[in-house]
Amino acid sequence: MMPRGREARSVLASLKRPHTLRSVSPALACLRANPFHTTATSRTDGVFQGLADKRQPLPWIEAFKRQQEGKPAHNSDDVPTERDLTPRKMSDSYHRVVLPLKKDPWLSDTYVNSSGHIRLGTLFMDLDALSGIIVYKHTGPGVTTVTAALDRITIAHPLTEICDLEYSGQVTYASGRSSVEITCKVAKAREEGEPSKPEDVLLTCTFTMVALDPNTRKPVNIPKLEPTNAEEEKIFKAGEAKSLSKKETSKASLLQTEPNDAESALIHQIWLRQLAYHDPNNPLRQPPNVVAMSKTQLSTAAIMQPQYRNRHQTMIFGGFHLKQTFELAFCCAASFAHARPTFISADPCTFRNPVPVGSVLYLTATVAYTDPPLLEEDGTEPGFPDEKNPMTRVHVRVDSKVRDVEHGVAKPTGQFNYTFSVPKDLKVLPHTYEEYMMYVDARRRVSLGDSQRKEEQKASSDKRPEASEKNLIG
């Protein structure tokens, strides 16, 4: 048998020789039909091509050369111009893309995990890319836009089979200042001409984007959104109320104020229980299903490569950042529960500082709260609606920070919050003051999510997914 190296040289040499009209092996025919010097299509790693085509105007090596020469590396569309602040309609920013997972099984390799579930982290990347397209339709050229926050992602209906998916979204609130709210949804894609149904919607999410001057990086005003009918007016008012609510919530943050009376009572009750577990004169001992918060942590560190950059070339794409935090949160919940978690919601997440290309991103995930909790404010132990089939909600917080390769000063880049359910009875136990604050903050987020879910159920008669339902999302 001919050695592999000689065989390869023989094949390459035969390509250079003239050939008579004799039979040609399939391997040679394939080599001739597919020359080695191919050009890869421009894309951001992991983002659906239908959303990535216009996101990167320059190959990284060219953008890098421009940086070295002191020239701007961003897109010409981002060069400051006199901005058109004419009010926009919701329809002006509407965008729709179909993800053909059923029609193209090879595409599903990027979106389906080893257990046959849709990879939510990959969907989050696509949704952030979609929001980037939508915001540029609203603002027009001359501004740089960045993702400031993910307000909430909820599962509306479970996915029971792999099918083509439709991404769609539009601007739903813009006051004329620098920020804009974008609402996106993922739904089952219907055949052309076939009407969609409410139960087709798999999940909805809301992003907050901020417009900046490309040179000064300071916020700039953008066109105001003007509703054109009663339905749009209702959506606009809801966005306005949400914006005001976020400001009030920010004022009540634990970084601004101390815990309220009920929260202080809860902290004291948990502290007393913690003391009892370690008191040799007390028969009460820490049960095996009660886990110290510090033992739930998982951490990662990764260099941010150019293929994950955003359309402004020098910073990492927010969707990739979101995907990394979600997948670490999933692993953290799975490690804590020793069971497969089911995604419930992404609670308000913030992007505090950009992540530069070439920097080192550090992520730390912690189980910050479990529901039912260890104790209530009065010291009682809450039970499960069905004691034979316990189902615990696990709230995972992911803290993100970035350093340059030389590991100088660290900058916080965001806090991300995810809630999962697991089919077990588990409790998390804080010990330090910092952990108690994380516990109280997570408890607030879960309570707020419950309130919003009840409002959504009142507004819609559609059935919401239960944790026990078959669901291929997650």
TrEMBL record:
UniProt superkingdom: Eukaryota
GO CC list: mitochondrion
Ranges for region Disordered: 66-87, 445-474
Record keywords: Hydrolase, Repeat, Transit peptide
GO molecular function: fatty acyl-CoA hydrolase activity
HotDog ACOT-type domain ranges (all copies): 97-215, 294-426
SUPFAM superfamilies: Thioesterase/thiol ester dehydrase-isomerase
GO annotation, biological process: acyl-CoA metabolic process
Positions with biased composition (Basic and acidic residues): 451-474
Similarity comment text for this entry: Belongs to the acyl coenzyme A hydrolase family.
Protein name (Swiss-Prot/TrEMBL): Chromosome 2, complete genome
